[in-house]
Amino acid sequence: MLSVQGIDLYYGAAQALKRVSVEASIGEVTCILGRNGVGKTSLLRAVTGIQPVRNGSIAWDGQDITKLSSVERARRGIAYVPQGRDIFPLLTVKENLETGFAILPRGERKIPDEIYDLFPVLKTMLRRRGGDLSGGQQQQLAIARALIMKPKLLVLDEPTEGIQPSIIKDIGRVIDLLRGRGQMAILLVEQYFDFARDLAQRFAVMDRGEIVLAGAREDLNEGDVRRHLTV
Number of folded domains in the chain? Predict the structure, then answer.
């Protein structure tokens, strides 16, 4: 469903991505692994339209979206949970969730009960300001906000960063549940191989802006992957 082919991305004169190709399919988690600064977030920014690419192409659902804005990509079912979560600290939990309504038809602008089934803690905190939540609760809020958009491609940038182990497990269960429904593709950036190994069906490992290893989970050598993750 998502096909990224040979993209180059620059910040000024600095090249962040070099001929990067990756795919993500409905019903699967594709994990992008790598150390800090190797281009993982830049790849997600390219996929979601936040940062334009200089060369190569990005297709979604059989359509070329390389030149589309991030808003147009969101309308086509691409939802992004950025690193650092980027929730609105002065808005309540309920108001943060409602910001996901922006791309939905007016008649569909309601928070599904399923959101509270996936993240029960949010239902008890609807009137609390986003900035008053713990890091783990903010991460759950950010994922829930993305799910409000009814995405077909969920893009997650390091959802375990700075999160306590119990909530990491909860987030892992939600990702696996969403994948198992076979209704969306999930593109996940991670540094922690153990978390990714249990969730992903396909992997791509990045180093210095390039894909250096890629394949199905059963085909990758764990030792080779870990060598690219150690500092």
Answer: 1
